[in-house]
Amino acid sequence: MFERFTTEARSVVVESQVHAARLGSDTITEEHLLIALLAGAGEPGATGRAAGALASLGLAGRRPEIEGALAETRRRGGVSQAEADALAGMGIDIDAIVAKVEEAHGEGALSQGGRVKRRLTKGHRPFTPAAKKVLERSLRVALGHGDKHIGEEHLLLALVTGPGAVSEVLGDFGAGYGEVERAVYGTVK
Known about the structure:
Radius of gyration: 17 Å
Order of helices and strands: HHHHHHHHHH
Structural class: mainly alpha
Mean pLDDT: 86
Oligomer: single chain
Strand content: under 5%
């Protein structure tokens, strides 16, 4: 599948590994793929469909805000802001629940996901199953739009297609699938 990736898309994958290392993660997640896309879009003179889409959606310079929203979602055990707001409407205060859990088990107790840290083999960081699914979906997105190669725009669309914190946070920032698809391809059939 990687033979279909454009040079730019391959750069995003490589940069996601760099961001995983910077954040101290032993795996490469969907978040790292998004951070790599945002980092590339935020560079002066950034070109390409994904950079253009992120810029037109007002996200190119908002990487710190988006990283903060992702960290807060992780802290809440994967509950997005939209989900927290919906639960608050039913009288459930997620922040109070998180505070109680952290009081009993330590800060960030819900963000660890019960994973046991493992030693890296010569610096190799594997992709999580969810990140692998993003890479697989990017192929389906490309083929669905009649594109023969997988570009960074297909990675971005694959990120907003799937379930999880990344698509929820992007949605909170006004970048759901429909908005991203229009920003990438213009008017969609």
